[in-house]
Amino acid sequence: MRNVKRFIAVIVLLCASCVLFASGADIVVLMDASGTILPWFDQVNSRILPDITRKFVRQGDTFHLISFNSRVNLEIVQPVQNEQDVSRVVSRFMLLYPLGQNSDFLSGLNYTHQYVSSLPERENKIVIIISDGIFNPPENSRYAGMSPADAQTELSSLARRIRSAGWEVYYIKLPFPENAVIRSLDDTILADTSAGHPDGETREYLDVSSEFTEQMDIRPSEFIGEDVPVDFVDSVFSLPEVEFPQDIGKKGHYFVLPLKVTNVSDQTVHLELTGVVHDSINVLDSTEFLRLKPGKKGTLRAHIQLPETLPLGKQSVPLSLRFSGNVRTVPQSAYVTLELVSFSIRQSLHRGGPVAYALILVLFAVLIVALVLFLIARRTSGPAAAALRTAGTRDAESSGMENAAFASGENRDKNIAYTTGENRDKHLAYTTGENHDKNISFELEHDNSTATLAAQASELEKARRERYSILSGAAPVHAARLEHRQGARAGEAIAVREDRSIMLNLFVTNQNTAIGRRNVHRMKAGSRLSLGGGASAFLVFLVHFPSRIAEVRFDGVQCTLAILKPEFFPYEEEVIIENCIDREFTLVSDHGYEVSFTLREFEDPVERLNRLLTSIHY
What we know:
Layout lengths: L1 H21 L2 E8 L5 H19 L5 E7 L3 E8 L3 H11 L11 H14 L5 E8 L2 E2 L12 H18 L2 E6 L6 E4 L5 E4 L10 E5 L1 H8 L4 E2 L9 H6 L3 E3 L3 E5 L2 E9 L6 E10 L2 E2 L5 E5 L4 E9 L7 E11 L9 E8 L4 H8 L1 H53 L3 H9 L3 H11 L1 H50 L17 E8 L11 E5 L2 E6 L5 E2 L10 E5 L4 E5 L12 E3 L5 E5 L5 E8 L3 H10 L4
Parallel strand pairs: 1-2, 1-4, 4-6, 6-10, 7-9, 12-19, 22-23
Antiparallel strand pairs: 2-3, 5-9, 7-8, 11-13, 13-17, 14-15, 14-16, 14-18, 18-19, 20-21, 20-28, 22-24, 24-25, 25-26, 27-28
Helix pairs in contact: 2-3, 4-5, 5-6, 8-9
C-alpha cells in the first residue's frame, strides 16, 4: 500500500511539472494583406512579425497567422517547442504579399472570433491585429453595401463577444493610405491625404479601427512607418524588462541569481517566479515574488540549484524564466556566465540545513559571551589601576619626608663635608676636562640634526603646496577652455548624397549588452538620431548623462557625429566629426567619470535570412 502511495505521488509531481513547462498560449495574429498597406508591408513583414515571434512567443505556445483582404485565409498553425519552429514561422512570413484590392476588416474579425473560440481550452489566448483599419469589403462579402450604422452595430457586437471571452487583444495601427479621404463611422473626416497628389484620383475609405479600439477599451500602438524603432514591439506589449547578470563569478551548484526587473507599463505588475528552466529541468529552489508599481525597478533573488552532474569550471549556463499566469518578460531567456566550484559557504549552509544554522547560532553565542567578558574586564581594570596610582603617590610622599629628614641634622653635616673637600676638587676636574669637550660636541651635533629635520619638513610642505596649487588650478583652466566652445546646431540640414540606408549599433565599454536591440537602429539618408542618456535613441546608461548630448547623422555615404554639448567631449577638438564609424570616443560626466563608446555597422539577421531565401530560384 505504501509503495502504491509513493507511485501516485510521483505521477502527480510529473503531471504538475508537465503543466508548468508545457502549458502555453494560443497567439493569433490577424494580418491585413490588402493593397492599402503596401507601402508599409516590407517593414511589417521583415521587422514587426519576426520581432513578435522572437520576443513574445514562448516555448509551449502555438502560433496562428490569419490574413485578410478580399477573403480570409488561415496561413499557418505552428506549435513552438524549439528554434526550428520559430524559423518555420519566420520563413512563412516571406510568402505573404498584399495583393488584395479590398479590405474586409469585419469578415477577418468575425472569422478570428469563430476560429479562436473553437481552439482547445488553454490558460491564455492572445489576439494581435495589424491593420490600417480600412473597411472596404468586396461585392461578394456579406458586409458589402452595409451602412455605417449597421457596420457600427456589428462591430460593437463582435467587440462585446471578444471582451466577454477574456482574451488579450493588441492593435498595431498602420498609417492610412495616400491620396485618400478617410471617414469614421459617424461620417467625421479623420484624415485627408490627397493634398500632395493633385493629379491622382482621390478615393474615400471608411475607418473602423477607432470604433473597434474604443469598444474594446484598448489603446492602439501607432506605427510610424518611416523608421521603425528597434524596441517598437516591446512598447506594444509593455512587457517587464529583465536584466540578467552577465558574469556572477565563482559559485557552487546552489547560488542566488539576482534579476533586475523594470516595469515599463502604466499598471502595477505582480510577478511570481515559479520556475527557472535549464536543459528542460526546473532548477529554481523556491518560488519568488515581486510587486512593481508603474515605472519602478526591483530585484528578484532566484535561488538556483544546478544539477550535480554539471561539470566544474567556467561556463555559460542557459536559463529560461517561468512566471505564474504565463506572464512574459523581455528577455525571458539568457546565458549566465559563472565559474562552477565544488565548495561554497552558501551551498554548505543549504545542504547542512538545521545543523548548519545551529552551529552558526552557537558561534554567535560564543562571540557574544566573549564580548561581554571583555567589557567586564575592561571596566574592572580601571579601579585597580587607580588604586595602584594612589599607593604609588603615598609611597612617594613617604620617601620625600624621609629625604627631608635625611637632609637635616647629621646627614646634612656629612654632605657639606663631602662637597667641600677633596671630592670637590675631583668634581671640578671632571667637568672641565675631556668630558666638557664631549658635552659641547654633543650639543653641536644635536643642534645640526634639528636644523636638518626642520629644513626637510619645510621642503615637504613646499612640495605639497605646489601639488595642491596645480590640482586646484586644473579645473578652472579646463572649464575656461570649455566655455569658449560651442556645440553643433541640432537642426542643421543634412545634404543627401546617395539614397540608401545603414544599420548602426552603439557599443559602450563595460556597459551591459543584454538589452536586445535597444542600441541598434536603421538610418536612412538624411536622417539623424540622438545619443546620450534619458530618452536618446543611442542610449548610454553606464554613467548618468543628459539626453541628446550628440547626434549621429547619415547623408547616404558616411556617418557624422555632431557634438551638441561639447562639455561632455573634452578630448575632441572639433564638434563635427566625419567618418565616425569604428572610431572610439570618450565621454566625461559631470563627476569626472570617463566612458568610451564606438559606433559600428550592424547587419540584421532577418535581412540576411531574407536575402538567402530570395536568392533561391524555383
